[in-house]
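step: validate -> pass
step: tokenize input -> pass
step: predict -> running
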Amino acid sequence: MKRLLALIPLFIAFSVSAQVDSDFENGISHSVALLEQARNAENDSLRQALVTQFDNEFWNLLGKDETMSYPFDNNKPVSVLKSPDNKFRIFTWGLQFADGNYKYYGIVQINVQGDVVALRLNDMSDGTTNPSNANMQASNWYGAIYYDLVQLGGKKSNIYALIGWDGGDLFVNRKVLEQVRIATNNGGEIIFGGHFINEHNKKVDRLIFEFTERAVMSLRYDKKLKMFVADHLASPSEYKGNTKFMGPDGSFDGYKYDKGFWMYVPDLDIKATRF
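step: predict -> pass
step: emit ->
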């Protein structure tokens, strides 16, 4: 009897935990359904109302400590990336409006001594002058949907690289490569940018590749080469420099770490996997 009684508190704790997990999963399912509705809405005002409702519900869910370990495997409308050291996760999603332009949204979960700090990302890309050379934070983020996260500088580093996609508008798409730093000494914050790339002897905070919306551009981190690898973009001579006609020309460029910077390396002899 004593043994049975000892197991009762454990059973109750498990039941409560299961209930919390179930409630959380139901909340995630409901909020993701809102985002799907926003993407298929018939007008911009309804899109905005639904994505705002989704944003608020998702924000409330991600502010809970127990959500840091939730896998988020099946939420396709939302990109979820976790740092290799489990210090943070970044959630990004986007919505296209009737004029063809996109607006992006995001939330960062930072692990600060076992507690979850959630930061909402505010897309300010349209109002940012010279975004290639802008240090940005959660409050003035260069919006994109991230599809890769790479830890830079070893396992104990708090510096990472993010690679993302920006749908641009009806004529151009963009790929973005930028550095991000996580700070936990001020209660948790994220800093985007930092002069970490040296291209043509010019140091920049982020690389923004712009190309025709009819093309697909590859931008990735190659673990074997230990380089960032990108399709080289070019345009027909009659449209030289016009990004509406830019596209991959079959060659590849890279960025290799050397003396504190990722240095531009042209004309790599490799075959890149497309995204």
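step: describe -> Residues 10-20 have pLDDT under 50 and may be disordered.
step: cleanup -> pass
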